[in-house]
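> tool_call: predict_assembly(chains=three)
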Amino acid sequence: MKGLLFMKSLLSEINKSIGKNDDLYKWSQDFGNIQVVLVGLSSLIDFPKTIQLLEGQIQTVRHSSEVIVQQLHKIGKVKSEKKEIIEAIFEGELIIFIDELGLVISIDPVPKTLNRSIESPSSDNNIQGPLSAFNEDLSTNIGLLRKEFSSVELQVSSYTFGNSQKKGLSLLYCKDQVNNKLVENVTKQVESNLDKMLYTIQDVTKMLGLPKYSLISSFNTTESPQEVYSNLVKGRVVLFLDRLPYALILPSTLWDMFAIRNDENYSFVIMIALRLLRVIGAITALVLPGLYVALVAVNPEMLRIELALSVAKTREGVPYPAFVEVILMLVILELIIEASVRLPKSIGPTVTMVGGIVLGQAAVDARLVSNLLIIILAASTIASSTIVGFQNSFTIRIFKYNTLVLASIFGVLGVFTGLFLVCAYIASKTTLGIPYLSVKGEMKSG
Amino acid sequence: MNIKKSKIYILLVMLLLLTSGCWDNRDINHRVMPVVLGVSKESEEEYKAYLQVPILQEDGIKTQIITGVGKTINEIVDKTSANLESNVDLLHIKVIVIDRAFAEEGVKDLISGIMRSREIPSKALVAICEEDMDEFFKKMSQVELSDGTALLDYFEKNAGWNPQIALTRVWHVYRSIHSYTKDVAIPIIRLGESTLIEQAGSAVIKNGAMLDEINSDETLLYNAFQGMSAHGKIEVLDEGSVLILDNGLNFASRLENELPILTLELQLEVMILEVKGDPTIEKIEKELEKLLKPRFENMITKLKDSEADILGIGQLFRKEIPRAQLKDWRSKYYPNLKFNLTVDVTIQNSGNLKEPGE
Amino acid sequence: MDKSLYVVFMYIVSHAGLILFLYPENIIASTTQGHWVPIVIEVFVHFFILTVFLKGLNYFPKQNDLITIYTSAGKIIAFLFLVPIFLYFLTSNIITVRGYSEIITIVFLSNTPLWAIMVVLLAISSYLAIKGVEAIFRTGVLIFILLFPLIIFILVISFQNVDWHYVYPLWVEDFSFFSQSSYYKSYFAIGGVFLFLGFIRASIPYKNKYVLIAATAVIPIFLLSVYIPILVFGQATASTFLYPFVLAVDSINLTWFMFDRMTMFFLLSIIIFILLFISLVLWMIVRVLSKCIAPSIKPFYLVVAVSLLIFIICLFIPSWKDVEQLFLWNTILRFYVILGVPISVVILGIKSRLEGDIK
């Protein structure tokens, strides 16, 4: 009797606090001789299938109510607190109220399929490589990885973050490769911050205590299980955040900008050539705009006379100094890049076309910029896109301005000192005690 | 701490940006970049400088000549800069043309000045002009199709250079002023009748002043002595003409009773181009040797008399003569040089036809 | 973990930066012939002090750096050695900053005021010095990979204008270069660098073998830096130049290269190497300061203060002549440091070993 009363009050309380949600589903059901109330969110649970499954499981038993309850105990967890129950409902669990016994059990129902199927990667394009990519579902991602890396060495630990809202985070590493100090560090940070909310990578950065103002991403992100596998074997730690369709690899290193695992699907020589190409791309993207300003404004004696004359000719009539010219065009270029990310795919080509006309033709014809500059900027933009990982190309894009500013003041000396500054910045960055510029093996032995 | 540091860094960058306005960096299109600098003596004290400037135009490049008079080259440049809408920038000077009279007087100070300043590159070529300089530069600016670098191309090894043109740069001349054992030859040019420039042999320079002259055939030997390839030069004989394919020079030097003795062997590999009549291979070889040997001997004798060691024979005796005496190479040893020359000609092939005289 | 490679790169890079700058002028001024003799003597001295120094350091446990070795030996010894080391570092930084800014204005930035160039050089190297010693060494690795091929390329093509006859006369007539002050100035190239080995022992462990390999790798740079200008211009001409090697590079003419002046690339690489050296020395100065005098002040402020001091002193040096004068004064200090430090470390090492045995 007491149980019944408790149930009633519990139900009404739940009703009071979340009953206004239209997708809250309540259903009375008889299992044999026990009356139960099923509660759950119809947006997350496939009810007909769940009930069918439940009935099937219980009716095959056809025993006394006690046996049925025992059966339910086996497949679910007993809940008693109201808060706990509400949380469980929002996590997509099915709650079974057994009035007579005053028992609340939550079980995993048949969920509605709300996830994408496994698709090919959308930002980590690759040719001639495995095409399955991570999606938003945490367990799918871990499953994908287990397929890629079927070994007892793969250690997966899961954490739930947040107070009012829960968010899953999984920490993966390869037991015999990883640097124990790194794992210790990460686990300590994770465990001491379990009450924080994680939505974005910035939250994760903050949670792990990584520098907020760093221009270089402390994580390396990837969509490809193959990539994650190779990083795990190299002794790195991988984080999966629920609803984030990519893996966060910690720590990132400089070499990640130039090398991906998929390169190894080509022959060795081609792999080396590809990576060299990316290194050249990074240096070109960094140096080229600065070098243009330096050669045009400060140190034209470095150009051969024939080149100097034709450069001077292309700049004839340009009304402002080279530095302003470059900054102007760079900003427009960055705007185009940003716009083409932002726009829907159907309008995207328009931007490219308009941008192409503005940059390629009109600006030069109007004698606003020299056409050599257009070539230089195009080359630099293309070059900065050869770098692996979108977040890394951001880094290069920002560093470019550093060399540019110094070059406008000190000419070629500025280009070189800018390069030095970038090197110094890269060299001084460490992630959880591991340098960004770590040499092979440093990660493992620590 | 981190924010603080980045703030300081940003402040520093802004400060630098602000200060960058303090000194003027002119863009390339606001600079006048002369390619050729001509120098002559206007009076005892003053130079006259000619700057050949390529001027950009819609349909190509035209040449403009700027002249100025002043006590130093830099003064002239400064004066003309003030009068022009753009700044004159000597950084791209490629050829320096010196008036013959001025060269005979001596160009030591001019060359030292160029070496001292960063402006004119030390690898600019030096030439001596036989013509009146006003006339010469006037003609240069009138030439059609000129892209302003005509004179440069004339000397450029991958463009118009020929093995009988001496290739002498400012630093060569500067070195010859200071070196104990090496002088240089500077090419002499004049206006051609059908072509723009005509080469008229080379000037023998000692201590920065022109002493003597050698003709273009002798310049070829001079170049061969420097180790430059004479490839491409055609020698005309009574029996026909041959093309020099390769050349080599072997030396052996020794000092006997303070007398320098040099044994020289000039090796030539040639190809037959044309023949008159039916001479044998041996005849052609002999003929060529007969042509070259006296030419070489005459040149060395002439140079010995002028005490200018443009061939750098003294270099070969650096091993034998101690440094303290090396200083007197030109005056004490060089005039007494004894040499023994053999010319060895090999006919490498005879073109598409079989060898004549068979 | 063994980081010998970092040390090797740093050793080569900072030596290259120092050698290719003033060293050729000093050697060419000190003797008129047989330049290899003074160079080889210098290389021997280099190896001697290096092995003595490394041997001395080996007596102490790895976590002891030069400062703790001296401070634990008593106040007088600490004063006797740390003060000269500090002063030596300070003056050599002043000379490098001032000297390199001067050549920058001479060769390619004639419009830019001297102070602005000194500000950049000091600002950038202080930034790196603040980031700490590991950052300095890692930057050294990157710089080595990026720019050293360029230096090697330039060293190779600078043989373009060589006239081998200028090698003669091969032997020196007398050893009069020992009486030339410029010969002692040339020890700047070896005097400045090796001391860092005593400072980094705790943070960047290295093997002595690799240091000696690095020192061997530097020998060709010593020889080439002097012999390339000699072979291109000859002794008589080369001795009239302030920077013979720079002018020798300036005479290179490459028709296929898209840039005109090789000198710029060469000089800029050297300047970048020197930036590394300046930041390393700055770091060492601050290390001495913070360990002995002001342990409470954060290194950040010390670096800023020291570089400000250097900047102000540099501003007060009006001409190249005064730089030379400072260079000469620095020579006395230099010999005290490069001979005194290794020998004293060996003596202290043997002493501590003996005391350890007794205990």
